[in-house]
Specification:
about 210 residues, mainly alpha, about 65% helix
Length: about 210
């Protein structure tokens, strides 16, 4: 998966994730802590990031920091959930004007790849750090990921697929492919849009 570059940007100069953190109703200081934590988790990974690291980045240590942070675990879960919600909202916005089932799936795949392949993304490194988190945290992350995947469940349920195809297997194969494009993607040859269109063309099995 794409790794963040530590600059704290995702989806362009004004980060969608950063924007969501700033609009969450928290104080400016609290939002800054969440932004710093998100950047560090993306840059170093969950296991290699300490509460002290986060405090040093925002200039708060000891009791002052723990006024805002319950624990590293709770902080990671919260940021993970916000990041997934940002991705889900972006996909839903892309498909909302469309009515054709295949066009909707294309828009969802392209949008997901744009998020995946953004070299400044914080969202995808956060998503990709799943294995390094403790088991109790993974359970909380899975619940939110299931909610995110419901977008694709609904899209695939609307497709005019041959009845011999299992839609659950179809969804798992599609998401596995989308989640692994960044492992082989190199900028310059194809755009996320072109790859998304190719993916849907390959997965298109119309009802005969």
């Amino acid at each position: 998966m794409t790794q963040g570059d530590g600059r704290g940007n995702v989806d362009g100069p004004q980060s969608a994730l950063t924007g969501a953190l700033r609009e969450s109703g928290l104080s400016e200081r609290h939002s800054a802590i969440l932004e710093a934590a998100a950047a560090l988790f993306a840059e170093r990974g969950y296991a290699a990031t300490s509460v002290r690291d986060i405090g040093e980045r925002v200039g708060l240590l000891g009791g002052s920091l723990y006024h805002y942070i319950k624990s590293k675990e709770a902080l990671f879960v919260r940021i993970h959930h916000i990041a997934l919600q940002v991705a889900e909202d972006r996909i839903r916005a892309a498909i909302s004007p469309l009515s054709d089932p295949w066009a909707r799936l294309e828009a969802a795949c392209i949008t997901m790849l744009e998020i995946q392949l953004d070299p400044n993304s914080l969202t995808m490194p956060l998503m990709n750090d799943f294995a390094s988190t403790p088991a109790d945290i993974r359970e909380q992350l899975v619940e939110k990921r299931d909610t995110f995947e419901q977008v694709f469940r609904d899209l695939i349920a609307d497709l005019p697929l041959d009845p011999s195809l299992d839609r659950g297997v179809y969804r798992l194969l599609l998401l596995t492919l989308l989640n692994n494009v960044s492992g082989w993607y190199r900028p310059g040859r194809m755009t996320p849009t072109e790859i998304g269109l190719q993916v849907v063309q390959i997965f298109r099995h119309d009802l005969v």
